[in-house]
Q: What sequence folds into this?
């Protein structure tokens, strides 16, 4: 299973990165490569095209309906409806997300009909739900954020044999549901949307210390920190996360691939 960071900037695109977007790939027993896009935030569909044909990935999983996680669903709809595959009769693409995400696509697309939604096979999911995409199994947990939001645990074939597990927090403050979802995973892709130096409102994001504490408490194998805003020094966030985790941590960096 391979995790490629497409966009990791928190809250809005930065000068070096689009907003939230990750590509997951794994080969099944027959050698067919399956692809899932985790989040499709603002600006992400541009560089995503370096790594795959976004119009034909096997599924999109969107954590929640904030623009930095879902805005480019409207662009993906345009690509599927009018791009090179327009005449080939693409099947609706499975799209997993919280209730209401389909309405959000219509709002972003600015269309009064639902054609931008109908290019997707939208499946509303929340805490406790599960799904299968090729060799991947998805398990969802409810996150703590101002809008309906999910964290997701992805289980798939490991590059070294057996299974590997990735947990992506989406946007969330510390909560028990995400802690339980993350327990003993191989890689925790955790948001640290807050800088530590301010008083952080509850129920929105974690800071570096909280992301590191989550990784330590969940006994994860590796911590990758993401969703650092462009106006925050990532080095300070990483240092706080590493101190709390008790081991070095990585910063999600566009273009980098993590092999699980
Ligand atoms: Zn966000
Ligand atoms: Zn958010």
A:
């Amino acid at each position: 299973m391979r995790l490629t960071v497409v966009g990791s900037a928190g809250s809005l695109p930065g000068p070096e990165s689009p907003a939230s977007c990750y590509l997951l790939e794994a080969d099944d027993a027959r050698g067919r490569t399956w692809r899932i896009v985790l989040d499709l935030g603002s600006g992400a569909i541009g560089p995503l095209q370096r790594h795959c044909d976004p119009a034909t990935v096997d599924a999109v999983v969107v954590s929640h309906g904030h623009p930095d996680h879902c805005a480019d669903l409207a662009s993906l709809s345009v690509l599927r409806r009018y791009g090179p595959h327009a005449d080939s009769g693409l099947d609706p693409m499975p799209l997993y997300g919280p209730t209401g995400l389909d309405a959000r696509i219509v709002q972003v697309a600015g269309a009064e009909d639902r054609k931008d939604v109908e290019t997707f096979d939208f499946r509303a999911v929340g805490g406790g739900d599960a799904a299968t995409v090729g060799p991947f199994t998805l398990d969802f947990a409810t996150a703590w954020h101002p809008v309906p939001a999910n964290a997701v645990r992805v289980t798939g074939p490991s590059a070294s044999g057996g299974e590997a597990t990735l947990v992506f927090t989406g946007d969330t403050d510390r909560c028990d549901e995400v802690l339980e979802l993350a327990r003993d995973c191989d890689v925790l892709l955790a948001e640290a949307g807050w800088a530590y130096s301010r008083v952080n409102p509850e129920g929105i994001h974690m800071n570096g210390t909280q992301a590191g504490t989550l990784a330590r408490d969940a006994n994860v194998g590796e911590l990758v920190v993401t969703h650092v805003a462009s106006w925050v020094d990532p080095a300070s966030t990483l240092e706080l996360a590493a101190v709390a985790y008790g081991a070095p941590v990585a910063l999600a960096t566009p273009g980098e691939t993590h092999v699980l």
About this structure: Residues 2-259 form a domain with the Metallo-beta-lactamase; Chain A fold (CATH 3.60.15.10). The pocket of zinc ion (ligand 1) is lined by residues 10-11, 20, 66, 68-69, 171, 227 (CB under 6 Å). The radius of gyration is 17 Å. The chain is about 25% helix and 30% strand.
